[in-house]
Structures are given as C-alpha cells and as structure tokens.
Amino acid sequence: MQSVIFDFNGTLFSDSYLHEEAWQQFIQELIGRKFSQEEFSQVHGRTNHLIMEAILGKPLTKTEGEELSDRKEALYRDLVVKEEHQQLIPGVVDYFEFLKEHNFPMNIATASPKVNLDFYFEIFQLDRWFDYNQVVYNDGILESKPAPDFYIQAALNINASPSEMIIFEDSLIGLTGAANAKAKHIIAVATDENHKQLEETGLVDFVIDDFNDPRIKEILLR
Fold first, then answer.
1. Residue 109: which residues within 8 A CB-CB, separation 6 or more?
2. CB 202 within 8 A of CB 220
3. pLDDT tens for residues 132-188?
4. Which residues of 49-79 are buried (b: 16+ CB within 10 A; e: fewer)?
5. What are phi and psi of 172, to 5 degrees?
6. Is the preceding omega at residue 113 within 30 degrees of 0, hence cis?
7. 113 forms bridges with which residues in the sheet?
8. What global pTM score does this model have?
C-alpha cells in the first residue's frame, strides 16, 4: 500500500517567512549582517547544524550547534506565537481525514529539532493523525536532506515500503532528497509564488498551491 510522507515547514505549515525572519535576526546578531536570498536558497531544508556551519564557515561540535540552534528556534517560536492566526495550509486537515478514512499510512519527516516538533504537536494537535513516536525529526543521527534517510526512516517507522512513498515537499533540497529516496510520487507545495520554478525542477509529479487540489486524492485512488 502507498504511504504518504510529509515535510512540515513550508509544506504543512506556511511559515517560511517566519523562519527567514528569525534566521535574519539571528544571523545579524551572529555575524553582523543578513543573508542574501541566494544564500538562503542554498541552506533551506537542511538541518540547523549544517546551516550554522555554513553561516560561520567552520565546523561545530554537537554541543555548539545545539546551543546556537536553540537560540534561533526560540526566536522563531516567539514569532509564531505572536501571529494572529496559527493554522495549517488550507485543505491539510481535510486531507489528513481523507488519508485516515482510507487507511493510508502517513508520517512526518522534518528537519526541525525536537523542541519545535513538540511545539507543533501542541499548537496543531497533530496527535489526531500522527504517532509522535513514529515521526522523524532532526535528532542528529540521520544524515540531513538531500540524503534520503529522513524519508526512508519515516516510511519504515509506519511499517510502509519506501518504494511506495508519496512525498510532499516544498524546498529544492527536500525534493532532491525525495528523489534520492526513489519515492513513487513526489508532490511539491508551492511557496512564495514559486510554482513554475518547482515544476521546472523535473523532480515532481505536479505542484500544488494548497491541499484542496483534487489530484492529491486522485493519485492515491488510481
């Protein structure tokens, strides 16, 4: 049976601008300048440890990386809490219910650290659809996207075959990771009006703007 594996940030929760704002605040404090959009595009979707090393231009110990990551993610969560509306991308809840009704296994594979995963489970009540203990997050063990490890482990955690995965992703690094995982289908979620750019990657079956797109149900029922 096909399984459905979701990235989280930018895929289920439209928070790219909040992460970018938090990163820019943090980077300004750390190195005295902000990142360009080109620099952001090269790190988006990777683990915080790798991003921190890219910012500072040097390797970091696990402890150093975690301390810096904790500071940045605290800024990000503060920004989320200040938002008037904290909700998943339109159509997501209906799609989760559809998958649940039709008994399609589903899981999350996110580069977010555990502290953010805890935060998401609380504010979005994700335990209605996902088993927290099966979710794959950045625990420092698996190789970061674009390696396929996060997705493959997410499928294995729900007793699903990695070759039957349908993966939803929003970043180029994530889509590349999904391709490296040899997913059966890859569906891109457009953010920041990049629909055409995602189509042109050649990595995806199709691109959606939200989860009301009927193709995401049709592809499971063929």
1. 5, 6, 7, 135, 136, 150, 151, 153, 154, 167
2. no
3. 999 999 998 999 899 999 999 999 999 999 999 999 999 999 999 999 999 999 999
4. bbbbbebeeeebeeeebbebbeebbebbbeb
5. -60, -40
6. no
7. 138
8. 0.86
